[in-house]
Model the fold of this input.
Amino acid sequence: MFADLFAYFYQFADVFAFLVLSAAGLAVIFGMMGIINMAHGEFIMCGAYATTFAYHAGLPLPLAQACGVVAAGLIGIVLEATLIRPLYSRPLDSLLVTWGLGLIATQGTLIVLGSSMAGIGTPGGGFRLGGYGFSIYRMILFAAALCVLAFIYLLFKRTRFGIYARATMQNANMAQALGVRRNRIYALTFGIGAALAGLCGALYAPTMTLIPTMGATFIVEAFVTVVVGGANVLLGTAPAAVALAVTRTTLNGLYGQVFGQIGLLLAVVLIIRVLPEGFSGWLAKRAS
Amino acid sequence: MKRRSILTGAAALPLFSIVGRHSALGSDPIKIGLLEDISGDLAMMGLPKLHGSQLAVEEINGKGGVLGREIVLMHLDPQGDNARYQEFARRLLQRDKVDLLIGGITSASREAIRPIVDRSSVLYFYTNQYEGGVCDASMVSVGAVPEQQLSTLIPWMVERFGKRVYTVAADYNFGHLSAEWGRTILKPLNGEIVGEEFIPLGVSQFAQTIQNIQNAKPDWLYMLNVGAAQDSFFEQAAAAGLNLPMGSPIKIMLGFEHKRFPPPALNNMHAAANWFEELDTPAAVDFKKRWHAKFPNEPYINDMGYNAYVALYMFRMLAEGAKSIKRDEMRKVIDEGGACIDAPEGRICIDPKSQHTSHHMRLISVDAQHHVHIDKDFGVIQPYWLGQVGCDLTKRNDKEQYSPDHLPKAM
Done:
């Protein structure tokens, strides 16, 4: 009995972690800046590739993963300053630019680094409970997802940077008049979003096949979580991930992965129909 | 993803290229249309196919071409998109008027272009192993089929590991038909399918599947997962300590997972193969040397790449036998029997009834260090199944794909 309960929880945690980690970067960039980052999957790929490179170069895995996060974050900051910044008032154009960047990144990686890359084995071993075997690393992923949620909340609610960032997003000119360095805030926020995407790639790199198009496997989950969560990252992402993870886990367990996938997408349709502004819009309305 | 396909379509246009050099060979070159994915999710497998074709073209032109004419490849990259397969097949057949068409990776892409090929007068070579059953006079199948790969592998697995089998398959025609083959072959062996799961393409997370498998307690796994994303299964299963024997018609020699994943993720995987890079007969060693001289960075010469190479030599044999590159003339050579070539795996022939190819099959396995072992040599196996159930292309052209649950109607 306990083993079965734990098995369900483990499956839930696994899906939850996947949703949160794949969506976090996208949610920050969309929620804070209003930019729909179509190159999100490629930032994830970048994090995974940088991690793998650093690991094969001899770094221990956690350090290698830090390299993946930093690499994606730095690239994000540079791209924001050069390509994204002129497009803040042109959301459709920014969508097109990030889309193009994603295509260039995928194809460039294919040409420069080849069609696949030797992976890293999953660390941490496993444990047995009842008739089931579990991977410890998957539990680490769950913990990481909770940490990411806490990090986003604390960063934007409890730090000076967070106040500046939220002020800038609400009224950039006013914030600037009050002495906030607007461009720096934009660059850092985009960088943090990119770094969170890189973190997703870094964390999943040891569990997946490394190919240039690997980012695409995260995209559906990332977008549905952000859409269901709504515009406010701080409020929406966690409940959205819980709701979708419960739906998917239950259907996966009862009817298999095909129905899990169908159920996930149906749930999205239903939730958006009932809560057009996602969980965060609904929660904000209740609070006010 | 829709957004991807729209833009990559535009990006594909300049990729059109004619591979091959002008030479002193007489008259117009023979144009060979080639559809292989060298970008997208299947690039990893498509690239060795392109290389195999390029190597064969270079060698054949160096030996005087086909019927004294130079051969040139016209390669297009459909990027794993079936709509683009159709568009490019039409372009090659109707606008560029190629004399031969080769290519396609997934069974879905093959079935997408086969009706287009059927309306042309061009012969089409499909160079992958596949789930078998295509009875179509326009198509020559070069790869291995279930009677060569599964009727060998599955009984061996049952004998060695046991009768309880769990199937993990990709959710499209290849996965479903291969799963059906598994059920059909297991039945007379009193084997039992204790679980069967179809996974949508692109899914990369398998915690639930792994748990279902642990619940069902099978003796071994019948793996029909396809694509890089689904290959993540192995790493995740190893991390969860699943450690069951596995058998598959597409792992090791096709996806070279034992080279891509760190050991022991592919430990205890078994497959029946007509070609794998570890094969070390003198002919194979010589072939590998030529390949690596031309493509020093090739991570692995997989069976698809090998089949793509062999296909062009088959074409040369048929054309020289028929003294023509017309489909119907070349098919007469197949009809007469004896359409054989000496390939790196040994002597292989095209079967007149089904236009499928005989192969020298070996059972290979991967150990915990990811070394490949040959566990059994089956010798040459004919592609007998289609002929047995009533497909006879020397008499009529069914243009149909059959399976154990979908047999030809009795005449």
Observations:
- The radius of gyration of chain B is 21 Å.
